[in-house]
Design goal:
Layout (H helix, E strand, L loop, with lengths): L2 H8 L14 H33 L5 H6 L4 H18 L1 H11 L6 H9 L1
Helix pairs in contact: 1-4
């Protein structure tokens, strides 16, 4: 997978305009970014817990070994790609708002709800 493909996938969104729940869009933006980070951290914590339990069950690993670890060039490249994808997910709302500013024809879900209600 290329970096461009990975970044495009990370920023994917459903069709239509993003629904907003707060009157202040800046609050919405900060909340969306914060929740993306929260989601990523929760997944990371679960995976870390799994690794620690597996390592402990197999007889352990000294922490000093972890501190001395240096990734190979391939591992460093994978980490770099992961970081770019991660930042794209965290900042997805900013990207989508920029895309929405230039898009035409998208209908916001709250506009559809108003039409259906009326």
């Amino acid at each position: 997978m290329s970096i461009a493909d990975a970044l495009a996938d990370a920023g994917a969104k459903p069709a239509g305009k993003r629904p907003y729940f707060f009157a202040d869009r800046e609050v919405e933006r900060v909340l969306a970014i914060t929740m993306a980070v929260v989601q990523e951290l929760a997944v990371t914590r679960a995976r870390l817990d799994t690794l620690e339990r597996v390592i402990e069950a197999r007889g352990g690993l000294e922490r000093a070994e972890i501190e001395r670890f240096e990734p190979s060039p391939e591992a460093a490249a994978e980490r770099g790609l992961w970081l770019q994808e991660y930042l794209s997910r965290v900042l997805r709302i900013v990207q989508q708002e920029a895309e929405a500013a230039t898009a035409t024809g998208d209908v916001a879900s709250e506009d559809v709800a108003v039409e259906l209600r009326d």
